[in-house]
Input
Amino acid sequence: MAIGSGAKGEEPITAINVTPLVDVCLVLVIIFMAVAPFAVTMGIKVMESHGKVAATGKAGLDDNVSVRLTSAGKITVNGQEVANADALGQAIQQALTKSKDHMVVITADDENKVGQVVSILDAARQVGADKLAIMKSEEAKPTGGKS
Output
C-alpha cells in the first residue's frame, strides 16, 4: 500500500477482499475430504442372530469355545475355571485347537461390566478366534413384584 497525499489517501478502505477467505475455506474443504476416509475407526461388527439361522449353523454348540463370566468375576472356559487374564488367553487358545470354526461364545450376567466382556473378546481375538458371539445368561432371576 502506498501512502499518498491528497484526497484519495484520506478515504477509508470500505471494500473487504474476500478472495483470500474463499481460498482458505476451499483448501480446508479439500483437506477434510481427503482425510475423512482415514477417520473411520475399526470396531467390532455386531450382527443380530435369528432363531432359524442358529438352528441351521455349521457347527454345534459343543464344537465352539464357551467362555462364562459370572457376576462375581469368575471366568470359566468350557467349564474349567481360569485363574487370571494370562491363563485366559492360553485356555482359549488351547480350546480353539479343538474347535471346528474357531468360534468363541461369551456368556455373561446382567451385572457384569462391559469392560470385562470386551477384555475377554479382545483376548479371544488375539489368540486366534475367527468368530465371536455374546450371549446373555439364561439363569432365571426372581422378579420382585407383579406376576
Notes: The radius of gyration is 30 Å. The domain at 60-136 is CATH 3.30.420 (Nucleotidyltransferase; domain 5). Residues 19-35 form the longest helix (17 residues).
